[in-house]
Amino acid sequence: MSSERQPPINNFSSSINIVLATVHIVYVVLGVFPNALVFFVMIKAKKLRQEPKNIILLVRTFVDGLQSATICPLPIAASFAGKWTAGYHGCIGYAFFTSWFGLTSILLNALMVYERYFTLSKVPPRSLSHVFTYACIGACYLAGFIVSCFPLLGWSSYGYEAMGYHCSVVWYSTDWIHASFTIFLMVFFYAVPVTIILVAGCGVVRSVHRLHGVVKQISGTSSSISKAVFTTQVKATRLVAIMVAGFLIAWTPYGAFAVYAMTNENPPMLVATLPSTFAKSSLVYNPLIYLFMYRKLRRGSIDLMQNIASELFGTTDSSTGVKHTARLNSNRVGVQLISTTTPLPGTSSAFDDPTRN
Q1: 107 in Cβ contact with 155 (< 8 Å)
Q2: Going by C-beta distance under 8 Å and a sequence separation of 6 or more, which residues neighbour residue 254?
Q3: What does the alpha-carbon distance between residue 324 and residue 317 come to, in Å, rounded to a whole number?
C-alpha cells in the first residue's frame, strides 16, 4: 500500500481524542433527532410544504440528518481507535459526500436569501413557484455533485486531513493542481454565494423597511397587506438571516484554513483538525434554529411527540375497554392532534352499536 493511502499516525493525547469523540457523538445525537423531527413534521403538515422557503428547509433538513447519521460516526471511530478506521476508499467516499453536501449547502443558503428578497421585493408579497423552487434546489445539488467529482477526475484529489479524523480535498499543498482547485472553490463556492447573500440581504432589509411603511399607512383598512402578513414575513426573514449567519460562522474558519494551508504545507495538526470539526456544528444548530424560531414548526413538533407518546402509552378506559390514542391532523398547519378511540380486542364500545347513527 502506498504511503498516501495509509492513514497518518495520531500523536494526540488520549484526552484530546476523547474530547473530539464526544463532540462528534453530540453531533450525531443532536443532528439526527431534531432533523428527523423537523423533517417528519413538514412531511405531515401539507400547508407547511406549500411555502417555497419551507421546501428548501425540508430538503436541507433531510440531508443534514443523513450526514449526522452516516458521516459523523466515522470521526468517532477514528478518535477511539487513534487512526482512520474506514480504509482508504472509505476516506474517499467520506470526502466526496462531505464536499458535495457542504458545497450544496452554501448554494442553498444563497437561494434562501434570494427567496426572501423575491418575496418581499413587491407589495403585496409574492412567492416563487414550486416548479422554479424545485429546479433551483436540483441545480444546487447538481452543481455541488459535479464540482465534487473533479478531485476524482484528476483536478486536485481527496485524502486524509491532518491526523486522519477527517478526509477532504487536499488543501495543504502548494502544487498548482491542488492550489488552483482551492482557489476555484473559494471564488465560486464561497465568495460568489456570500456576495449574493450580502447583496440580496441588503435588498431584503430595504424591502422590509418599505413594506413596514406601507403597512403603517393602510393598517386597519381592507387590503391584502396586514400587520399579520408583515409580522410573518419579518419573522421568516429573521429565521433565514440567523441560519445563514450560523452557516458562515461554522464554515468560514474552514475556508480560512484552506487558504492558509495553500502556502503552509505543514500546519499545526490540532489547528488543521479543528476547522472540520467546527464546520459540522451546522448540522446541529440548523434544526434547533428552526424549532426555536418557527412557531408553527415548534407546535407541530410538540404535537408529533405527543402523538407518538399517545400511540405507545395510550390510556385505556376500564369501564368501556376503549383505548384512547391520538392521530395527527396533517390538514392544519401546526399538525394538531385529534382524539380518537380504539376498542381493545374482545371488547365493544358504543361506536360498535349498529342501532346508532
Answers
A1: no
A2: 275, 276, 278, 279
A3: 8
Q: With beta carbons less than 8 A apart as the criterion, state whether 238 and 293 touch.
A: yes
Q: What's phi and psi for 151, nearest 5 deg?
A: -65, -25
Q: How far apart are CA 23 and CA 42, in angstroms?
A: 28
For residue 23, the model assigns a pLDDT of 92
| Numbered ranges of CATH 1.20.1070.10 in the chain | 3-293
Low-confidence ranges of the chain (pLDDT < 50): 1, 222, 316, 326-328, 330-357
pLDDT at 25: 94
Contact 182, 258 (CB under 8 A): yes
CA dihedral 208, 187, 91, 71 (to 10 degrees): 0
DSSP 8-state class, residue 172: S
Instruction: Decide: 336 and 320 in contact? Cβ < 8 Å.
Output: no
Rounded-to-integer distance, Cα 136 and Cα 130, Å: 10
Q: What is the pLDDT of residue 126?
A: 76
pTM exceeding the 0.90 threshold for the entire prediction: no
Cis peptide before 124 (omega within 30 of 0): yes
- 68-114 confidence digits (pLDDT tens): 999 999 999 988 888 888 899 999 999 999 999 989 988 998 898 88
Cell of 83: 487512526
Q: 231 phi and psi, to 5 degrees? A: -60, -40
Topology classification of domain 3-293:
Rhopdopsin 7-helix transmembrane proteins (1.20.1070)
